[in-house]
Design a protein that fits this description.
The protein is an alpha/beta fold and 215 residues long. The chain has two domains: 106 residues, Rossmann fold (3-Layer(aba) Sandwich), CATH 3.40.50.2300; 91 residues, Orthogonal Bundle (Arc Repressor Mutant, subunit A), CATH 1.10.10. Helices cover 41% and strands 16% of the residues. It has eight helices and nine strands. The strands form three sheets. Strands 4-5-6-7 form a four-stranded antiparallel β-sheet, with no helix packed on it. It has a three-stranded parallel β-sheet with strand order 1-2-3, with helices on both faces. α4 links the parallel β2 and β3. α6 packs across α8. The termini are far apart. About 2% of the residues have low confidence.
Amino acid sequence: MVEDDAGIRDSVEYALRAESFEVITASDGVEGCERFQQDNPDLLLLDLQLPKRSGLDVLRWVRESSRVPVVILSVKDSEADIVSALELGADDYLTKPYSTKELIARIRANLRRNHGQPGRTKLADLEIDWRRAEIFHAGLRIFLTAREFELLKALHEHRNQVLSREWLMVNVWGYPCDGDERIIDATIKRLRRKVGAEVVETVRGLGYRLANGSN
């Protein structure tokens, strides 16, 4: 957890340890990058307004080499701030103040992983190794975050079906969207940018599906 407010940091650490999580904390962006590199955590809780190095800069740095789930915890609640973080690769976004119970539920949902299916699958011009959670184009690996990969996997497993934003939120993110669909749309936008806009089709008013020819 990278958080400069000592009160928030200590209270969240206490609550998470009570739920049997191992917690590593940092109080600024520089220390956060150092601890991340040193300790290789399973999930990152990240404030945006950090001294020495901003949260968005830390997120950008993390995404250069890691697909670990990143949950943003911030007082910034504008659509622009949320979308910016999601488009940079954040998996989730909670605005302060938030309940500890909801935070723990989000953490568990983000840590939840499907084991995938063995072998590789051809998807349009892509080759996907579900077991290793890797995707290739012309022999070169495409870097996806954990959430982007899980989203692609859900679309593939339910190919020829239109998946609503509500369904994706519950089955990929692990909790209801409560009417806020920005996290879905931002992740779809990032996924299209990486695997090709033609792979995922928008069905207006209904949701998303793999495009014809991508099955």
